[in-house]
Amino acid sequence: CTYRAPIGYLNLGEMENKPLDPERAPVIKQMYEHYATGDWSLSDLARYAKEQGFMTVPMRRRRTKEEMLAEEDDEAEELPKISQLASVNLISRILTNPFYTGKTLDPDGKYIESNSHVALVSQQLFDDVQAVLKKKKVSIHYTEKLDLPLRGIIRCSHCKRVYTPYPKKGIQ
């Protein structure tokens, strides 16, 4: 694993060894187990993570353009490292990352078994979570789109939605 490991693993500066983070890994495993039941939503998991004290790894914020262009290089070292609370977006990225199953990306972009880290969750639990995520996905993709010339061009003056021949939210 030549890149930085995701939250839940420690980055010790070695690509051969990515041990589990003793603070964050148990909470992440619990989040996988809770979500696999199907009774928890992503916002419920974010609240649960907040109750458990789950925070992101402390990192320095990005420098502004002015800071980058400044002649003084000492400012970059003075930026404090900060941790943030887990957001719904972070929880979603955690639940969809195959790294937690003990796999890493190869040069072809496929996931293979890793020698640098151990699995935090089993492949079966990861697959169960992916099934629940797919079941809860609400976007609809139509296989046969109607051939209407004004689709995507005209907006409703009242609600500002794009014209579509399909019912959305119960409205035609």
How big is the Rg? 22 Å
Q: Could you tell me the mean pLDDT?
A: 82
Q: Which strand order spans the largest sheet, edge to edge or round the barrel?
A: 1-2
Give the tally of β-strands.
Answer: 4
Enumerate how many helices there are, as a single number: 6
Helix percent reads: 25-40%
Characterize the largest beta sheet: strand count, sense, and whether it forms a barrel. Answer: 2 strands, antiparallel
Flag low-confidence runs: none
Overall outline = extended
Strand content: 5-15%
Distance between the termini: 50 Å
Structural notes for this entry:
It is a single chain. Helix 1 packs antiparallel against helix 2 (42-51). With 172 residues, the protein is mainly alpha-helical. Strands 1-2 form a two-stranded antiparallel sheet. A two-stranded antiparallel ribbon has the order 3-4. The protein has helices spanning 25-36, 42-51, 65-69, 74-78, 88-95, 123-136, and strands at 59-60, 81-82, 103-105, 111-113. 31% of the residues lie in helices and 6% in strands.
Present the secondary structure layout.
Layout: H1 25-36, H2 42-51, E1 59-60, H3 65-69, H4 74-78, E2 81-82, H5 88-95, E3 103-105, E4 111-113, H6 123-136
Antiparallel strand pairs: 1-2, 3-4
Provide key terms for this protein.
two-stranded antiparallel ribbon, extended, 31% helix, 172 residues, single chain, 6% strand, mainly alpha
